[in-house]
Write a structure and sequence with these properties.
single chain; 255 residues; mainly alpha; 2 domains; three-stranded antiparallel beta sheet
Amino acid sequence: MPDKRSASPDEPKAADQNEPDAVETSLEAAAGLSTMLALLPGVAGTVGGVVGGVLAQVFSGISSDRRMQRLAETVALLRGELEAVVEIQGDYVRSEDFEDLAEKALRQAVDERHSEKRRLYARFISGLATSPPATYDERRQQLRTLDELQLRHVDVLMMLAAVEDETTAAKLSPEQRQEVPFIELGRHDWVHENHEILDQLTAMGLARTATRSGPIRLRKKRGEQEVEGGRIRTFPQISEYGRRFVEFLASDADE
């Protein structure tokens, strides 16, 4: 398993006297989020207090400006995710489960060096607040999975999901959409090119190897076996857990 941190970190930035202080930026972002939450339908005043408490816990453990900036960015991303929300799960947001999971997600986001992964953490917290409540163990497993994922894992997982879901397919790049019809055929070059990622997704429980038999005439390739006048085709497929994971992280804020 490769290093779970993404391979493309933020570029170091030179200090600039005109740039806002990282602490001030984080406080402003947190205040803006709390104000916005208070305006959402179905949100009692205590929800803002819960979110504020989570932010305070994370804020108090940060000592570097770079990590403080990551917190500010994640909070701003979370606000963007929630702006299109009609209503949040107020009772769940007031629960101990939400507080614990949101704090863990924010801490992981602060440690994450890649901005696109921080966006996924913001989406995770948004999902906690807006999706029908699931068990704590399920959400905790999803958070562990998110911590392990690299962006290449996400790309391949979304392509596997797109085989079964046109909405997901619409979010892919044109190049990725062209590959999707061949995934279920177990096309050798795509599977070979991505075999390490597919193996890792399978180890995480997000993908599996599926089989299909039939009298389909194909040139003999690796992964095919001759069987009584037909062949058994093996191909990668998203798992049930993978479907739930992708669905949970789906967002209308996607561009």
